[in-house]
Design goal:
It is a single chain. The protein has three helices and 17 strands. By secondary structure, the chain is mainly beta. It has a single domain, classed as Beta Barrel (Porin). The protein has a 17-stranded antiparallel beta sheet that branches. A hairpin with a 2-residue loop joins strand 5 and strand 6. The longest helix has 15 residues. The radius of gyration is 22 Å and the shape is globular.
């Protein structure tokens, strides 16, 4: 499921690129009639997309690149339509609303398509997100060290509405998600595990969300704090056939420790809970989401991770990035016992193994006006797996 999050973050990220008033230096022009000056910085003459991203276009196709090891390399296209309104005030600038469709495919046969609308209302005091998508995903899920090759096919719908609290940096709101997924194994190995993995999962959930944000930019922050907490109830009364709780919190802190050097700290935790007689689908359990660790490699009833990053601008417009962290999953989990199948047991936080990962990367300043950097990250983990990630903006997803 992590690759769906990557696509959704990419869609939202590309939307928010336009959260500024139109540049005086940029021309209003059609998509196929570019002014080359839109792609060079006014101060240094180097490649810079600030003016281009500040120009209003109606229709804009954007490529999507997937590098998640769980589904393999792939790509697709995001066709966006930007609505004309660019509301702003002295206090803040509001992004334009946007509608679009997107689709991706990867080398292991994974396919995903979605239609979406993101709305920004009343000078960014109300935010709404609507999305409907269909998926056909092939990826491994794990019983500790045993990977089960799964196919997930179905569709999902999502609606969120957030309200700014006065003139503060707090938002309060909620969202609803509905998922209908048919889960099947891709091979006939270990048929004893079929009762755990082969199901049709229907889930309807309501969530309450609170968010706080003082970052200097939503793209590649150099200072500020972002924090978000959610409480979600999956219930038959909201649609579907599952009943359980899911809750989580995350915080990202950025601070300049010296000239051209920025320190970043990430802390994140999630948990699920079900009453006696209810089940928690394996696809809904928290997992460690960190560069260097394959999506869904480590899952459990509870998850906690921490990650640090240092970003150094060693040459004008060029950054070197060093990052590393570790995570744990604990609580109730399944393990495979030959002859018995999947057996549930509980593991404490203290006894749970720590899974580290880290690496290096580089960034180029793509749009100075927005504080937008992009580049590559090279990461590894305790199992010496190697992964490459294309990172545009922050590697830590705020969604």
């Amino acid at each position: 499921m992590h690759n769906l999050k990557i696509l959704f973050i990419s869609v939202c990220f590309l939307t928010l690129l336009h959260s500024t008033e139109e540049s005086n230096a940029a021309k209003e022009t059609g998509f196929f009639s570019f002014d080359k000056n839109l792609f060079f910085g006014e101060d240094d003459g180097k490649f810079d997309m600030s003016a281009y991203l500040s120009t209003k276009y109606g229709f804009m196709p954007m490529p999507v690149i997937v590098t998640e090891p769980a589904v393999g390399y792939g790509g697709g296209l995001n066709l966006m339509f930007l609505h004309d309104s660019l509301a702003s005030s002295i206090e803040r600038k509001s992004p334009p609303s946007i509608s679009g469709v997107a689709g991706i495919g990867t080398e292991n046969g994974t396919l995903f398509g979605a239609a979406y609308h993101l709305g920004f209302w009343k000078e960014d005091t109300i935010r709404s997100t609507t999305a409907v998508g269909a998926l056909d995903i092939n990826m491994n899920f794990y019983l500790r060290d045993i990977g089960i090759d799964m196919n997930l096919k179905g569709y999902a719908a999502y609606q969120e509405l957030m309200f700014r609290l006065g003139e503060s940096n707090f938002f309060l709101g909620g969202n609803y998600v509905y998922v209908d997924i048919d889960s099947k194994k891709n091979n006939e190995e270990l048929p004893i595990l079929n009762p755990l993995f082969e199901h049709e999962f229907k889930m309807g959930a309501l969530a309450a969300v609170i968010q706080y944000d003082t970052r200097d930019t939503i793209f590649t922050p150099s200072k500020g704090l972002f924090a978000k907490a959610s409480l979600r109830r999956v219930d038959e009364n909201f649609g579907g056939n599952e009943n359980f709780w899911r809750y989580g919190a995350k915080a990202f802190y950025f601070h300049p420790i010296m000239d051209k050097v920025t320190f970043g700290l990430r802390v994140e935790g999630e948990a699920v809970h079900a009453s006696d007689g209810d089940r928690i689908p394996y696809i809904a359990k928290p997992s460690i989401n960190m560069r260097g660790i394959t999506a869904m490699r480590y899952q459990g009833e509870k998850m906690l991770l921490g990650e640090m990053q240092v970003r150094w601008e060693f040459i004008d417009r060029w950054n070197m990035v060093l990052f590393g962290g570790a995570g744990k999953v604990y609580g109730d989990e399944y393990r495979f016992v030959p002859g018995s199948g999947a057996v549930q047991e509980s593991i404490s936080f203290q006894d749970a193994p720590t899974h580290p990962a880290g690496g290096v990367g580089f960034r180029y300043e793509l749009a100075r006006k927005f504080g937008l950097w992009g580049g590559l990250d090279f990461a590894t983990n305790e199992e010496n797996d190697f992964a490459v990630y294309i990172t545009v903006g922050s590697a830590w997803g705020a969604f």
